[in-house]
Amino acid sequence: MPHWLIKSTIHRVISWLPATYFWNGLLQQYLSHTTELPKPQFETRLDHCHRHLEAFLQRRPAQTGDWRVLELGTGWFPTVPVGLYLCGAAEIWTFDIAPWLRSAQVKLMLDRFEECAQAGELQKRLPRLRPERLAKLRQFSANWDGRSPAALLEKMNIHFRVRDAQQTALEPGSIELFLSTAVIEYIPRPVLKSILLEFKRLSSPTAVQSHYINLCDHFSYFDRSITPFNNLKFTQRSWKYLNSPVAWQSRLRISDYRALFAETDYRILREDNTKGNPEDLRKVRLAPEFQHYSFEDLLVLFSWIVAEPAAESK
Q: In the chain, where are the structural domains located?
């Protein structure tokens, strides 16, 4: 049996167990090692933070203080929210449907920030870093007892919420920057549309959305025998049983995301796409669901989308 099918089967078994997130966490810790934070991975997260921030400030160059952020998908390491705090964000909400935050992972992240600062790399990767904020982060870290990661984040006005982002309970017009990093590809289209409509409700008149999207078949990271286009072979009926219940992949293509932003009254300002190997795609016998897409559409494996409320363009 191919390795990706074994992983899919394990995920399905885990989904049937009580405390699914606990068992999935153990799987990530001991098999996929996603609870580790090697230096290159940490630096990549800082680069994502910088890119999200620049996407916002390039559109809103006069924005100095009191800008508020909503991140979709906290994960194990709240690196981007902490980076935005260091760069001057007044308040940050970070939402996840699972309580991934753990003291060990947050301590590891804080150590990485300190190592990067000591090496002189932090200011290079976050040019807008405020020294007084870094001093506060060091103070918070030194005085943290390690018992509550959420309490530590609150000291930086970072509010961690285990909650469905379709209903955030935040005030209308209260957010200037919305962002996600390799998250929205896990969300079914109807749910994602509902989330984007909630973002529309929360958007200030000058709000910006910045999203990094991974459109690959994520099983291809685990099983090198398949290509990033492997999941395009399967009909919706087949994929229902092959898809991972705990790391669900929507299989939406870049044109689908464009349509979603248009449907939720957002105008895409910038779209930076990375394409895969055309030969890999040509070898795929596409399921009927994907045969109406253009070749260039299907070829996109990664995309960075920046958008603003459509009213801004009128």
A: 38-215+252-313
Could you give phi then psi for residue 267, rounded to 5 degrees?
-105, 125
Predicted confidence at residue 313, as pLDDT, reads: 45
For the stretch 274-304, pLDDT in tens is: 999 999 999 999 999 999 999 999 999 999 9
Who's near 94: CB < 8 A, 6+ residues apart?
A: 70, 71, 73, 74, 78, 81, 153, 158, 159, 160, 161
**CA angle at residue 108 from 107 to 111, to 5 degrees?**
85
Burial class (CB in 10 A: 0-12, 13-18, 19+), 53: buried
Q: Which CATH superfamily is domain 38-215+252-313 in?
A: Vaccinia Virus protein VP39 (3.40.50.150)
Sign of CA dihedral 35, 100, 238, 287: negative
Predicted confidence band at 27 (pLDDT cuts at 50, 70, 90)?
Answer: low
Task: Estimate to the nearest angstrom the gap between the alpha carbon of 215 and the chain centroid.
Answer: 12
Report whether pLDDT(114) > 60: yes
Q: Which of 86-95, 239-248, 254-263 has the lowest mean pLDDT?
A: 239-248
